[in-house]
Protein: Gfo/Idh/MocA family oxidoreductase
Amino acid sequence: MRRIKAGIIGCGSIAKNRHAPEYKANPYVNEMVFYDRNPERAATLADMFGGSTAHSVDELLADSTIQVVSDCSSNEYHHIFSTKALLNGKHVLCEKPISLTIDQANQIVEAQKKSGKILMVDHNQRLTRAHQKAKKMIENQVLGKVLTFRTTFGHKGPEHWGINKTNGTWFFKKDRSGFGVAGDLGIHKIDLLHYLLDDEIEQVSAFQGSLHKVTEAGDPIEVCDNIVCSLKTKQGRLGTASFSWTYYGEEDNSTIIYCENGILKIYHSHEYQLEVITKDGEKINYKLENIQTNDNQTNSGIIDAFIECVRLDKPPIVSGEEARSSLNVILGMLEAAETNRVVTVSSSISSIKVN
Structure:
């Protein structure tokens, strides 16, 4: 049964804590090959998970026995490695964000079309049972039409999560992470809103700041550690979003959907992962499963979903085009914050208009 060989490019925390253990646990994956520009990191994961190492990305991609590749590189390399992997005949699971620019995202999407291989992007919040149940309830208008929403995603920051556990993390470097907390956490929730509402964010305004995080030299970081946004969808829904690397007490990964006839609270309660409150005051609580956190690593389901798509030739859970749309919203947010204007996110994926 175990017959798929996986390659992992980039051996930081996301590979160590999510991709590698989930490949190891998948019954259809029998071997892993690791590459990192720091050979010791690759060797460590190979020892930990029983795999082997490659000396270069090109060596890994030239291995015809590798069918699937996880691109766990830092953000500035996604368009290089994912594009190369696709054009070398590999199915690709790319970490989010898909890239730093729309042009780079287009490179990856075009490579997927040319190769005919599966490209999936790791927006794993779609896979939680609470989000999936909430989507069904919204689709069926259990509480009527959606009117407004609010969402947040915050934790104490990537210096507590990254492989080196220092303020020298690449997440704090503008040329490498690009978007700070907006691209690290915010893009997850933008994809989730698109998924839950079957709608797309069309207009944004935002404030951002480097409020507390500092570099290894003690200077404010080059990217935002907090961003707060107002959002309007194509269908006219209104909402707010806040993303933070300075939630020091505990993570907050909650979303609340306000409908004509009540409220859906998702991951708002520690006890109930989905709460339904009708306008008459009736409360229905669902115990499903806790959402994965940095301090509580559980199976995200993304590898299982990716491998199932490869095995059964199914469409990806999150396509390159969908990931590109979420990236476009993040770019709009940052433009809005930098210009103090309302920004219209172009549906053509080619430009952003400042109003």
